[in-house]
């Protein structure tokens, strides 16, 4: 399960600013099927540990660019599997 409880913005200098979500409706719990190799791999390699850990983290610990709930941000062409 992934719990969405707050938003995070990363400023140019790398400082993170945590905020409440825009509405109570934004708070949610998302069920993720256990045991899927791609999910397990992502969580081990790309996510922070612990209940408060971020799911999308870059190699240097920064919030991944272009990760938005509205579909905006940086887009990259799909790579072949």
**Which percent band covers the strand fraction?**
15-25%
Helix-residue proportion: 10-25%
Secondary-structure-based class equals alpha+beta
> Over all CA atoms, what is the radius of gyration?
14 Å
Please tell me what the overall shape is: globular
List keywords for this structure.
81 residues; alpha+beta; two-stranded antiparallel sheet; 1 helix; 4 strands
Describe the secondary structure blueprint for this structure.
Layout: E1 2-4, E2 6-10, E3 16-20, E4 28-30, H1 37-45
Antiparallel strand pairs: 1-4, 2-3
Verbal overview:
The structure is a single chain. The chain has 81 residues and is an alpha+beta fold. It has a domain at 2-33. The protein is 11% helix and 20% strand. It has one helix and four strands, in the order E-E-E-E-H.
Question: What is this entry, summarized?
Answer:
This protein has 81 residues and is α+β, with helices and mostly antiparallel strands. It has one helix at residues 37-45, and strands spanning 2-4, 6-10, 16-20, 28-30.
């Amino acid at each position: 399960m992934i719990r969405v409880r707050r938003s995070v913005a990363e400023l140019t200098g790398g400082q993170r600013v945590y905020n409440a979500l825009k509405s109570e409706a934004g708070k949610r719990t998302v069920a993720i099927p256990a045991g899927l190799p791609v999910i397990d791999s992502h969580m081990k390699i790309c996510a922070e540990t612990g209940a408060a850990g971020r799911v999308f983290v870059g190699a240097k610990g920064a919030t991944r660019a272009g990760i938005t709930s509205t579909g905006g941000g940086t887009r990259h062409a799909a790579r072949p599997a």
